[in-house]
């Protein structure tokens, strides 16, 4: 058998080779991080200085966070938009998923088909009417509008529905016989059982919202409302040739998500693998 | 961002065996059902269904945002006819088609990486996280970093190329002949993580005893790879191919940040052109026609997926 005849050193060699490949693969991130610590004059010195000759980290990050385009403000905006979008999206998705899987009513079946069809519509095909709608009902250039726009992705409904379907119907029926109504069954029986799935979806939704560039670009106009990706781009065009600052901004944009990803790694990877979810 | 899910096409739950209940009970169920699904349904209705109908309708209009409602002029199929003679649109579609090449490339790389990581290395979770990093990172930040790396005259990539003897390295995103290729390379780099994770999940669902049986029959590694691994991964590959193709039609962020469709239109793609037409040039009707074509493309691929799934996928 391969597992026994393959001596350990073979696995070791492959691991070492793969390690080298992965470092090459991550080179842009390493370069970004190192450059963000440098003084501007050293950015393009070749051969690349992987350890900065002169450290300028504090000044660079201070400029990014509290300079003309203050990142603390955009962080706050991104946190606000991402947290609220995640909350609303999880609530609406869990409710709908329960309704579509655990409550049996005729209309539910064809309404689910309609929801299924909307899933095939590429978001960009409906941008223009959404924009016109938002201009006319006053949601344009507001965080509230952006949050609402991100909250009604039917993906969460599909994902959580799969999990609700895994709960035996007898559970629900016996709770009903005991006199519990659907709100009670939902909140004290069904939801606790699918909590891990909700957590996975929440992490994914948070990451997608945090990284979203297209919606903020189209539906926000005022600088003070910008989220991180939009601010990142504006900062880049503003800072022009100050590459060390741009890299400090890029690190700032990527870092918190990386942290969330590494902490929730198991959840994210399991969720992506399970649903084949594409962000 | 747009997401896809394999299970989305799964059949509705087994509702069939339910026993007939009395009318009032069933009415109660219907009421509760509607209450539970109404927030999502309302959101989808207002933010997706009405807009997609509106997109189709506006595709037949000649209208500019600033003219107000009275400025709408209905022009029939004129927008669509014009699209056929619009060089920029044709170029966009052509670039979209070229971009399809990224899909098999990153699928192959991801499959190889997935097999290596799943079967042949220590520190599996490190590798999963490492290759997943570009996918989890903000496209804007990543695009900005690559923009600097690709800097033609003193960027690190060209410095490296010069130092190993390439005297006239390409100007990458500043060169019309290389810009699309550069963006495609970055796109491959970003997509590997996602595809690899799905492939690893697919590999883990292949029963171990198949390999053991092959070992007993004396099959070598290559035979096992081509006769067991590849065929049994075919549902995964099919899924990744379809989602990959659909995602190439939605490429936008990276173009918007890195090239804005340039230089000289060499990296324009459908969604970028749509955005440019609608939100920069404010030609709403014409842009809606582009959106309708985009929708049609994605719809066709999805329907094609459904009909081809049974035929191609080797379960």
Automatic annotation (TrEMBL), chain A:
It comes from the Bacteria. GO terms for cellular component: plasma membrane. It is a multi-pass membrane protein. InterPro entries: MetI-like, MetI-like_sf. Pfam families: BPD_transp_1. It is found in: Cell membrane. CDD domains: TM_PBP2. Belongs to the binding-protein-dependent transport system permease family. This is Multiple sugar transport system permease protein. It comes from Paenibacillus rhizosphaerae.
Automatic annotation (TrEMBL), chain B:
The keyword Cell inner membrane does not apply. Residues 92-305 form the ABC transmembrane type-1 domain. It comes from the Bacteria. Residues 1-22 are annotated as: Disordered. One of its GO terms (biological process) is transmembrane transport. Pfam families: BPD_transp_1. The chain crosses the membrane at residues 31-61, 97-117, 129-149, 178-201, 237-258, 278-301. Belongs to the binding-protein-dependent transport system permease family. This is Multiple sugar transport system permease protein. It comes from Paenibacillus rhizosphaerae.
